[in-house]
Amino acid sequence: MPAKSPVLVCRYADDPGPHHIHSHLSCELIYVRRGKALFTAGESRYTVGGGAVVVLSSLEDHSVTVLEEPYQRYFTMLSVAELEKQTGNPRLTAVFKNRPPGFRHVLTLPGGGERLEGIFAALLAEYSRPGAFSGELSAALIKELLILLCRANPAAFPSCAGPLYQKIEEAQRYLESHFTEPVSVAEIAGRAFLQADYFSRSFKEITGYTPKQYLTLLRLTYGCELLLQSGLAVQDIAVRCGFGDASSFIQAFKKRYGATPHQYRRQEGAAGLITGGGKGQK
């Protein structure tokens, strides 16, 4: 059976378009071909020009402000779980999941602009006109891209060696698969055979988040998608996301996004942003 493509969405755009703060459960690669833009990813801000690649995790709120037109870019949303299956190398996918101290979201390949653009153009072609083995070819193209970026930007691809890293990686996967269920830090630490305090410290050092923050962000990001892609009531969304009740969901949501779920749905829905579905413009 042909492998699934890790590419969920691939687009090329050259219009300025509206750019809203948002997040989604897929990870993302943006290649700026021409122009200049201000990227905000979490607490980090970057001025990005042509030839650079921006890497975004599934949990990072991000926005774009165009500084210089024409702003031409490719953007690709990815299933990292599918990519991990096909590449078999956790270090290459660590750039999407881990945020060690000093991490930079903007990666470059000195003198390799044409090669980068060729890879993104080929990804777009496979996405737009899939053929036999498109899933495998797309995965191979992304693997080539990540290898080139890793060689040029090794600090963004932290080493994945050692039993502790493997335990943290397993914990991440468990949270990503079970975040809608009742989950406790003590339970996950126990699964890794680690003391809860040590587990929490190690998890944060590697991923940039505490286990509790990671779990909450997974739930809130899913909540954003349901708010914009479904007509479910906030109470129902809270339960589906793993929150015990609507008030807990609303409190956590407002703390994260500065708006209630109702306000977010109204504001972002009116702006035409569909998170995770590829209809929003980058």
Question: Would you kindly provide a written description of the structure presented here, covering whatever features stand out?
Answer:
This protein is 48% helix and 19% strand. It is an alpha+beta fold and 282 residues long. Strands 1, 2, 3, 4, 5 and 6 form a 6-stranded antiparallel sheet that branches. A hairpin with a 2-residue loop joins strand 2 (27-41) and strand 3. Helix 3 (113-128) packs antiparallel against helix 4, helix 8 packs across helix 11 (261-271) and helix 9 packs across helix 10. It is globular. The model is unreliable at 273-280 (pLDDT under 50).
Break the fold down into its secondary structure elements and pairings.
Layout: E1 7-13, E2 27-41, E3 44-49, E4 52-56, E5 62-78, H1 80-87, H2 90-97, E6 106-108, H3 113-128, H4 134-152, H5 163-178, H6 185-191, H7 196-207, H8 211-229, H9 234-241, H10 246-257, H11 261-271
Antiparallel strand pairs: 1-5, 2-3, 2-4, 2-5, 4-6
Short description:
By secondary structure, the protein is of the alpha+beta class. It has helices at residues 80-87, 90-97, 113-128, 134-152, 163-178, 185-191, 196-207, 211-229, 234-241, 246-257, 261-271, and strands at 7-13, 27-41, 44-49, 52-56, 62-78, 106-108. The chain is globular.
Task: Describe this protein with a few key phrases.
single chain; 282 residues; alpha+beta; six-stranded antiparallel beta sheet; 6 strands; globular; disordered C terminus
